[in-house]
Amino acid sequence: MTSRRILSTPAALFAVFAIILVGLNLRPALAAVGPLLDAIRASTGLSFQAAGWATSLPILAMGVLALGGAALYAIGMRRGIAIGVALILIASVLRIWFDTTTGLLLTAALAGIGIGAVQTLMPGYIKYRFPQGAERVMGLYVTAIMGGAALAAMTAPTLLPAIGWQYALAACAVPAVLALAAWFVATRTRAAMPAATAAPQPRAASIAPQPVHPARRLRTWALACVFGIETACYTLLLAWLAPFYLERGWSAFDAGALLAGLTVFEVIAGLTVSTVAARFPDRRGPLLVCMGLGVAGFAGLIFAPDALAWPAVACLGLGVGALFPLTLILTLDHSSRPERAGVLTGFVQGIGYLIAGSMPFAAGLLRDELGTFTAAWGVIAVALLAAIPLTVRFSPRSIARFEPAPASTPVSTSASAFNPT
Q: For a tag on the chain, would you pick the N or C end, based on fewer CB atoms within 10 A?
């Protein structure tokens, strides 16, 4: 059955709609804070270090949950994703009353747990629900994630004068309510949820070599470092781009518009990658071009932040927005077997998010100590440059040597690997 046929049924189309709604909720809790930071700091006395934790904590939670993905799948995809969205909803509503520094950080951590649960489980659901059209649905899902950040960056400062920062942050609960309702409707029947599909079991030692755990492979750590540096670029910009321009005298609306513009360029880049990636079996060329765009963008923020604000944001959005899917594609290139690819990508993302989660806090610390974000832009630009020698090593030939050729003997299966409900 073709992906077009699958996506043409009303039930499937509504499932895609629910997936998009869920995706829209995975960044507003992070993206809404930056444009409102002046108002939040005036009300709570929040330091830049603590404000950095408001972004770092959710990213760190994503990393921990990605490393523990097997336990989440045991809960069930339908139930686990619903719990994740519910936690985002609860965290958003609690920000009405938890309006202190401690409250803001607690709700950020709670939202991060919900975001991490959804991000860990949703790819599995998409693969099971749309086995013939997963790429198309994944593209829409990732685009929705980035679109949610743009929506929050524009909406939060618009709501600020009318309802205050607490309710502006709590407004993130509205799309969460819609997503939760749509998710339950889309997955309410057995037909809408996949059956427990057969999953490959480890091959016997006599048939094929036992897989080496990713933590014992230097190549896996190199992939995780590259993914972490590139994701750190995104988290750093998400947390501090708007506050950087607020400090330069821009209005909350204009700073939020700049952050929204960044995410629009990221959406464009992500969609472009999904269209043209197959034309570049050697991923190094596109990766190096995007790294160059990222370095150029950060240079613009350092040397001419006002005059080159929009050109710098365009370079950063296109570069950073393409690096995320390109690095995931590069990671998947290292394994042709679904069970090993899942373990590998989970480890790479888990370690990568732990690396990226430290950057917003570190940038806030630098800002408190030095009185400027310029040092943080310089640090991440140098980190991107340092990732280039690692990236050059990812040749197609070296990737082919990473995993032994699979044996021709059929793999035994079991129907209990994933719990769909």
A: N
